[in-house]
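Service request form, structural biology core

Requester: graduate student, group of Dr. S.
Request type: structure prediction, single chain
Budget code: on file
Notes: please return the result as structure tokens.

Sequence provided:
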Amino acid sequence: MTTVTDWHAHLWPRAYVDFLDAHGQDCRHQRGVPPGDDSPAMLRRRLQQMDDSGIDRQVLNAAALYPGLAPPGRNAQAARLANEAMAEAVRADPSRFAFLGMLPLPLVADSLRELDHLMNRLGARGVVLPPALHGTSTLDSQYDPLYAQLDRARAAVLYHPAGSRAGPSLCPPDAVTWSVGAIAEQTTLVLDWLAADMSDRFPCIRPIVSRAGGACFLLDPDTVQGVATSTLCFDSHTQGNAAALHLAERQVGRRRILLGTDYPFVRDARLAETVRQFRAVAGDVYRAARASRR
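Core staff response, request fulfilled:
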């Protein structure tokens, strides 16, 4: 049975957030967004809003709260804690939830171990990754062993911004961290993916670029001509910019545009409107999915 799946939905387990806080990582942004944690009451509230908005299933992730602790070895502890808690939330209602795991990048060996645990023991659908880390693309060749394992597992990879600035800017830092920086991260990720021939080298990975690929579909078509024949998919979260969503759909087709809401940043009435915008783009694909459940 086909389900309508939200591929861009956040959950920040309380134990994970507490661990990061205890070791000096600022988590105030995530703590201030209900219903974003894994308490039973918050999960019930999440399910009610999914029902009200016509969402059958959410694939949960803990981005953009990537572990960034010192010493780096603590990142492996943090990732394991996040993943175990996410799996527990999914086990509470596996018909409505799945999840994408966290990895302790840039530690490749630790990430390979955690990926094995994620896919073979916890039943994750894949992982969530930032487009870049410490100024280096996460598509850099140093991560090839990780991508090879993701390819063998036929895993989904959601590329979600880390909120970094993309190069020098005359704007105040607070003005570019998300409103501009996230768009730059996603646009660069698409260009890096094409330049690295990732679709040919790792054809079994399901790559999903959040925020409809940033600004990549505003570029010269020759610059992104490989997008249409790549394996890249794009989620529909464009912060209400329906025109950007239609640009993406015209380039890659509606079947490669996946529902993405950015829940719980988008919730309540805004959640229903986000799903409505997706339906306007997905058209027959969405209607067929809904009809199959009747």
